[in-house]
Amino acid sequence: MKVLIVESNPDLGRVWKRHLERQGAEVTLVETQEAAILALYGTDFEIIVLDLVLETGSALAVADFASYRRPEARVIFVTNTSFFSDGSIFAHSPNACAYVQSETPPEDLAAMVEHYAAGR
Questions:
Q1: Could you tell me which of 44, 48, 73 has the C-alpha nearest to residue 59?
Q2: What are the DSSP calls for 14-64, one per residue?
């Protein structure tokens, strides 16, 4: 299973990465929109864990590019805000499969990644 994590907080991203690698996932961790786009050019990711509020760039631009370049890739949006808490993210991003808070326990996030990758 190939996973792309796009997370501006490198410490949080590394925690998620370690949990997923323990499950046998091949994980690429990037911090910006530009790095995510470059990663999507070269690798066929099954799942993208995407921080909705990136410090550099736009998460929606990443999700939009992924839907074009890697249409089979599912996106799990994570956030520490209430933005899109009404579920409207699913109307804006056709490849969205989940929307969770950044404080979600890493083992729960890893289970979600495994679940959505299995459905591919």
A1: 48
A2: HHHHHHHHHTT-EEEEE-SHHHHHHHHHH---SEEEEESS-SSS-HHHHHH
Q: What is the CA radius of gyration of the chain?
A: 13
Q: Which residues pair with 2 in a beta bridge?
A: 26
| pLDDT the model gives residue 61 | 94
Taking 3-state DSSP, the helix, strand and coil percentages for the chain, each rounded to the nearest 5, stand at 40, 20, 35
Tens digit of each residue's pLDDT (9 = 90 or more) over 90-104: 556 778 888 888 889
Please name the amino acid found at residue 96.
A
Q: In what order do the strands lie in the sheet with 26-30?
A: 26-30, 2-6, 47-51, 74-79, 96-101
